[in-house]
Write a structure and sequence with these properties.
Helix content is about 45%, strand content about 10%. The chain is globular, with a radius of gyration of 19 Å. It has a single domain, classed as Aldolase class I (TIM Barrel), CATH 3.20.20. The chain is an alpha/beta fold. Helix 1 packs across helix 9 and helix 2 runs antiparallel to helix 11.
C-alpha cells in the first residue's frame, strides 16, 4: 500500500462551469477552416465496438475503416485508434500492424470496475501481451463514492505501472483512466477523480512521455456520458497539472458526441483552455497524441460533412459503412 497521496482539489462552481461550457457552443468556424477542423477531429477518433456480438470479422472490418475511413480518398486521414475488448486485441494488432493506427483495449473489469484487483491486472497484462498499444481502464466508482479514495489511487497506480513496465525501445503502452463521470454525481467529484488519476499516472512514470496517460469521461455504457461542463472541469485539472508539474496529460471525452458540430465545440474548448501553457503559440493538445474522441458514430458524420463542404450535398447516412 502506498503512502497517502489524496490531492486537495479546488471546489467547482457548477453554475459557472455550465455557463462557460455553454459559451463554447456559440463559437463558429470560418468556411476555409472547416475542412482542416473536420480532418483534425477525424484523426482524433477512437473507433470502438464493445458489444457481446463482436466477432473477428467485425473487428477486421472496423480496422479497415480505421485505416481508410473513405477508401477512395487518400487525403482523408486515418483515425487515431480502435478500441475493443481484450479478446479481440490480437486480431486487431495483426490487422493494423504497420499502419500507425493504435490498438486500445478496455480492461480492468470494464465497465463496472468491480472485479478483484488481481483479475483486473491479469486482464491488462494479457491485453498488452496480445499487442495493445493503449489500455482504457475504468475506476471503481463504488470505492470512490464511499470515500475509499486511497484504494482507487492504488488501483490506478498498479495498472499504470503495468503499462509503464511494458515500455520497450520501440513501443510505449499508454493508459486512459475512465472516471465514468455520469456516476460521480458532482463536478467536485469529477475534479477530485481527475486530480487523483493524474497524480497516480505521474507517480507511475507514464507522464514522462507527453500523452502517456489520459483521463477519460465515460465508458459509453452510462448516461449521461461526455458533457461539456464535465470535460471543461477535466481540462482544467489537466491545465493545473501542467502548470504545477509541467506534465502533458491527455483527454478523452467519450460517449454521446455523434455529430461534427459538437466536436468543433470541444476542440474550441481545448484550445481556449490549454493554449499557450508551454509558452508556444499553438496548443499541443490539438493533436491525437493528447486528445481523443470516443465516439464511433462521429466518424461517419465527419465524413458526410467533408463531402457536403466540398460538393454542397449532404450524403445519406447509408452512404458510409458502420464498420
Amino acid at each position: 500500500m502506498s503512502a497517502p497521496v489524496i490531492p486537495t482539489s479546488p471546489t467547482v462552481d457548477a453554475v459557472m462551469a455550465a455557463q462557460r461550457a455553454k459559451g463554447f457552443t456559440t463559437r463558429s468556424i470560418k468556411r476555409e477552416s472547416k475542412g482542416q477542423a473536420l480532418r483534425l477531429a477525424l484523426s482524433m477518433v477512437d473507433l470502438t465496438t464493445l458489444e457481446g456480438k463482436d466477432s473477428p470479422e467485425k473487428i477486421e472490418s472496423i480496422c479497415r475503416k480505421a485505416v481508410s475511413p473513405m477508401p477512395e480518398r487518400c487525403d482523408i486521414p486515418s483515425v487515431a485508434a480502435v478500441c475493443f475488448y481484450p479478446s479481440m486485441v490480437k486480431i486487431a494488432a495483426e490487422a493494423l500492424a504497420g499502419t500507425g493506427v493504435k490498438v486500445a483495449s478496455v480492461a480492468t473489469g470494464f465497465p463496472s470496475g468491480q472485479f478483484p484487483l488481481d483479475v483486473r491486472l491479469r486482464d491488462t497484462e494479457e491485453a498488452i501481451q496480445d499487442g495493445a498499444d493503449e489500455i482504457d481502464m475504468v475506476i471503481n466508482r463504488g470505492a470512490f463514492l464511499s470515500g475509499r479514495r486511497q484504494e482507487v489511487y492504488d488501483e490506478i497506480l498498479a495498472v499504470a505501472k503495468l503499462c509503464r513496465d511494458a515500455w520497450t525501445s520501440d513501443k510505449h503502452v499508454h493508459l486512459k483512466v475512465i472516471l465514468e463521470t455520469g456516476e460521480l454525481e458532482t463536478l467536485d467529484n469529477v475534479r477530485l477523480a481527475s486530480d487523483l488519476s493524474i497524480v497516480a499516472l505521474g507517480e507511475s512514470g507514464l507522464l514522462d512521455e507527453p500523452g502517456g496517460g489520459f483521463i477519460k469521461t465515460s465508458t459509453g455504457k452510462i448516461s449521461p456520458a461526455a458533457t461539456m461542463p464535465v470535460t471543461l472541469v477535466m481540462l482544467e485539472a489537466i491545465r493545473d497539472a501542467h502548470r504545477r508539474d509541467g506534465v502533458y496529460v491527455g483527454m478523452k471525452p467519450a460517449g454521446g458526441i455523434r455529430a461534427a458540430k459538437p466536436a468543433w465545440h470541444y476542440l474550441c474548448m481545448v484550445k481556449e483552455t490549454l493554449e499557450g501553457l508551454d509558452g508556444s503559440a499553438g496548443c499541443p493538445w490539438l493533436s491525437p497524441s493528447l486528445f481523443r474522441f470516443g465516439a464511433s458514430s462521429l466518424a461517419n458524420d465527419i465524413l458526410r460533412q467533408i463531402v457536403k463542404l466540398e460538393t454542397g450535398t449532404y450524403p445519406a447516412a447509408y452512404d458510409f459503412s458502420e464498420a
